[in-house]
tRNA-uridine aminocarboxypropyltransferase (Setaria italica), 367 residues
Amino acid sequence: MAFSAEPAPGEEKAESEEEPFPATAAAGGGAGDAGELSHEEWRRWGTSSPLPGAVAAVVRELLEMEAAAGEKMRFGGVGSKLKGDFKDVEDKKHRAVYETLADSDQKLQYFSARQIGCRLLGSRGYLCQKCWLPAEDCMCANVFPCNLWRGMKFWLYMHPKDFLRQNNTGKLLWQVFGIQAAQLCLFGIQEHEDIMWDAFQRSGKGKISFLYPNKSTIPKSVKDLKFDGLSLSSDLHDMSSQDEPFNFILLDGTWSNSAALYRRLKERWTAIWGDEDIPCISLSTLSASVMHKLRPQPAWDRTCTAAAAAGLLWELNLRPELSTLEFEKQAEAVECSLDILLDALTTRRVRLGRSITRKQRHNRNCI
Ligand SMILES: [Zn+2]
């Protein structure tokens, strides 16, 4: 697939509202982890996957460069970019690596690993590994965990630029439902993508829905899913596994990045099933999320990822045959976590003297 490492125009604007890392954030900063990335550290950020080889390699290279330069790495500004003289050295090196990569998929994988490696090093000792907020604003104690109905599973297909973002809302889903029921899959990270697609192949194509407005085919909604008394599927005649959960995939990134996420999903879907028609569903009861007040154009249909998940659970709750599955409780748990995140971010912004509302022109679509 065609891929550009350059940010899309809308993306720059979105990132400009991201809170910069503090000048003190450094690779080995703070208590706890330092040096090379371990499997344990990797998993504490919200994933059960093994440490991806490409991310480990990027971190190792950065630390080696730091040792050779005899200068501490510093991260700051938007996107946790490298700072100081070190930045120029690293920049030259990463561009040289990039040039050697022949195909666009390798370039994409390298881009993703580098983004994630820099974000990880810049967040060490600064962000809480569970809620991705600065330690002093950690909201973990306020979040109530809840069991997701075991007949379904969420996948957060996340753009690397959303990884470890304080105002990301996809992370709320595994804070509430746990990292198995709401699983992180990072775009361009081979280990993550293979785990997700292996799960899809186990479940069968009838147990997969992407929450993405697909304009090219007949729009489908939650109402079109079939329920046989035990499990959900998009087609009861399909040879899907009864034991596997139904997979709902949420695209977690800015609006411009979501199109790239979708293209990559569609490409792999077609490669596996030889079918151009990727199963998308849209929600019919969407409302602008409370997060919209703090976040520029959000990922999906003017709502944020967690609000989309809550909307999906509300729509499942509306189906009488599913009424015993407690979707109301699950939807409320997500909405409650969203309120807690909004409060934590607002409190932080007020304390730091930042504006708590977005510019008026962004607010016109809010309810
Ligand atoms: Zn926390």
Q: What stands out?
A: Residues 269 and 278 are 7 Å apart (CA to CA).
